[in-house]
Amino acid sequence: MKVTRDKTESRQAFLTIEMEPTEIEESLDKAYQRLVKRTNVPGFRKGKTPRTILERYLGSERLFDDALDNLIPEAYRQAIKDEGIEPFAQPHIELVQKEPVIFKAVVPLKPSVKLGDYRSITLEPSPVEEVTETQVEAVLEELRHRHAAWEPVERLSDFNDVLVIDIEGTVEGKSVTNQKGVQYQPRPDATTPVPGFAEQLTGIKKGETKEFKLQLPADHQNPDLAGKEALFRVTVAEIRQEVMPDLNDEFAKRVGTEFESLAALRQRITDDMKQAAAEKAKADFENRVIDAVTAMTEVEYPPVLMEAEIDDLLSQRFQKGQAELDAYLMTVGKTQEQLRQDMLPAAVTRLTRALVLGEVAGGEKIEVSDVDIDAEIEAMTKGVAEKKDEFRRVLNTAQNRQSIGNRILTRKTVQKLVEMAGGSPEAEAAAEKEEKN
Q1: CA-to-CA distance for 437 and 434, rounded, in angstroms?
Q2: Quick one: DSSP state of residue 126?
Q3: What's the structural domain count of the chain?
Q4: pLDDT tens across 365-387, in order?
Q5: How many Cβ atoms are within 10 Å of 347's Cβ, its own excluded?
Q6: Residues in CB range of 1: below 8 A, 6 or more apart
Q7: In the chain, N or C: fewer CB atoms in 10 Å?
Q8: What is the domain range of residue 282?
Q9: Which pLDDT tens digit goes with each residue over 43-100?
């Protein structure tokens, strides 16, 4: 076997491996020994068919392919051993030719992470935004909308009413939609189902039928309809108007039984918004610290890691699987490859951060114990009322414990960096101790 290391770039080793004729023959003989034991050839006892007869019966290609299926993995393992290569993931192997047998292997290598002087980073904590009375009032107004009643009215329709409509739509005489009893709310900024549709449904009375034409957008999800004129026929069966509840103590009790008064509801909203503002400031500071550490770090990784990161993002976004993904792609008019390209910036950021934080964790000797994981699982199950034991058993599987451990490790690492960057007493004491040592 002849191994040529063509190049090493992008954390990948590119190998060309050529097999010797004697190695091919040995592999063919092993393939014959495997196949002859499980092939029934008329006129011969199982396992006793001569190789020449077996080759004619199965075809020489079958024997050769079986030989390669075993030879190539074995040759690859020997090649990386001889070259002193430690693969980080499965290789990409391509058969170049069969006479002689030559194949290429692209071997992913461990990512390279060269940290800068991250211990020197100092940042001012992010300010906590003040909660204003206007913001509290906006939340109360949103709650009023959520608890509003929708009552039938006998007047002309207007924006923000809810209409019950029957709708027929045709393009070039062909039906494209036919629905009855649809609830539709015309809003001034509405663009569905077609731009201009909402405006056409204002100023109509109950029982009235209106016909109108609208041009479908050029980027319509159905290319066959894009840019064409559609004829709509809409009958308004009912008009409903939003009736908002009064802002008083009774309203507060409707929002939640724990609120005895409107004042108590206001206070809860204020407290929650203050907490959210503090958490936002904390998260913002953490992100600034991580960005600062990442900016001074040189990171290089094999492309296979990026593809895996995008796969993970897709699985998180489309949890129902390929059917959900296909439906989305049809809606936005994109291919899966175009969507993967769109997700590339987010994947780069996430992967780079993970590699940087992992390197920091190793350098700072940050560890996660079983006690840490047990405490995290206990916290996760604390608010679970039903099937708590079953949920705990699921969390305690080896895979989930590892996943939880990774999250804890990331959290501890970020906290360590935050303490360093913020100049906390704990971080300063640790730095002084390290200098003395």
Answers
A1: 5
A2: P
A3: 3
A4: 999 999 999 999 999 998 887 88
A5: 20
A6: 17, 18, 19, 20, 23, 75, 78, 79
A7: C
A8: 277-436
A9: 898 889 999 999 899 988 899 999 999 999 999 999 999 999 999 999 999 999 988 9
